[in-house]
Design a protein that fits this description.
Radius of gyration: 30 Å
Strand content: 15-25%
Order of helices and strands: HEEHEHEEEHHHHEHHEEEH
Shape: globular
Low-confidence stretches: 1-78
Structural class: alpha+beta
Distance between the termini: 66 Å
Strand order of the largest sheet: 5-4-10-9-8
Mean pLDDT: 82
Number of strands: 10
Length: 322
């Protein structure tokens, strides 16, 4: 009887040894963190070195009494300098002498953004998105709905870029004071409403317009409700056929929502041409804002902002890996 028990213990011990070796061998793990890729190596307390999963002698000779200690060795992935890529891409964009352009882009898939150019620009009609956003914020604060007249003005203002409707809603929100108050809540720090009735001469930056688009399209914290965002997005997706230019030049098919602005300055005869919106290209979505001034013709300004929008998206598209 004692001999049978001894043989049984030896058999169970033999069965446990390869099982433990296999478990130790499988302790080599590969994982990921926000900072990059890391590798976990299980090491014995006796200093026998890394455990291999290939059935090496170090793994097969491990003692059942040895415990494991995991160490993490971070291997940082190389970062991508989007600002440098965008600057390089913008070298292919030709502006007329005296013309100025700035562009800001956000990749909605990765959350990365980049800006080229600085300084303030006249908004022209892109401010109409800001006017509507300010109106909707006031409506939310008052816990009411848009009136039928306000909806009619909003549709005409965004889809047809109607100036009379824009002036009516500009007055409704309290002109520059109302716009600036809303923008303070939206996080716009470089935008100032135009004097008096001159809403088209509101000053802004590409960075601020990207911030406004974040509000409209619900990226991160937003002051606008889901229904308010959907309302603005719907109007921006239904602009009149004659305004299908600007950032939409980047988009695949009809996957875009935008608002354009164009203004010939009476003092110089030169054109402000701007375009802001959301586009989808190669299955990825982007928010893009491109501003320009000093263009000798509207057509040349449109070509400039479209080239800038393409360059902005290319700074992300060409280096994305899956």
């Amino acid at each position: 009887m004692d001999r049978h028990r001894a043989r049984g213990r030896r058999a169970r011990t033999a069965r446990r040894t390869p099982l433990l070796s296999a478990l130790v061998a499988s302790a080599v793990l590969v994982g990921g963190t926000a900072a990059g890729t890391f590798y976990m190596k299980a090491q014995a307390h006796d200093g026998s070195g890394p455990v291999s999963s290939s059935g090496s002698p170090a793994a097969s000779s491990a003692s059942p009494a040895v415990s494991e200690e995991a160490s993490v060795e971070p291997v940082a992935e190389p970062s991508v300098d989007r600002e440098a890529l965008l600057a390089a891409a913008m070298k292919s964009v030709t502006a007329e002498n005296g013309a100025k352009v700035s562009v800001a882009v956000l990749d909605l898939t990765s959350g990365e953004s980049s800006v080229y150019g600085n300084g303030s620009f006249d908004t022209a009609s892109i401010v109409k998105v800001d006017i509507l956003a300010a109106l909707l914020l006031q409506v939310q604060d008052a816990d009411r709905h848009l009136t039928a007249q306000e909806k009619a003005y909003a549709t005409a203002m965004i889809e047809h870029s109607d100036n009379t409707a824009a002036s009516a809603l500009w007055d409704k929100i309290g002109q520059a004071h109302g716009l600036d108050s809303a923008n303070a809540r939206f996080g716009l720090s470089g935008t100032q409403g135009g004097d008096g009735v001159l809403w088209g001469l509101t000053q802004t930056t590409a960075t601020d317009q990207l911030t406004l688009l974040r509000q409209v399209f619900g990226v991160g914290d937003t002051e606008l409700s889901k229904s308010s965002r959907a309302y603005v997005q719907g109007l921006m997706g239904g602009v009149a056929a004659g305004q299908h230019w600007g950032v939409s030049a980047v988009a695949d098919g009809s996957a875009w929502a935008l608002k354009n602005g164009w203004l010939a300055r009476s003092t110089t005869g030169l054109w402000d041409i701007n375009s802001i919106g959301r586009v989808t290209a190669d299955g990825r979505s982007y928010l893009v804002a491109t501003l320009s001034n000093g263009n000798t013709t509207q057509a040349k300004g449109i070509s400039l902002v479209e080239a800038a929008a393409r360059a902005a998206v290319s700074a992300f598209r060409d280096t994305d890996a899956g």
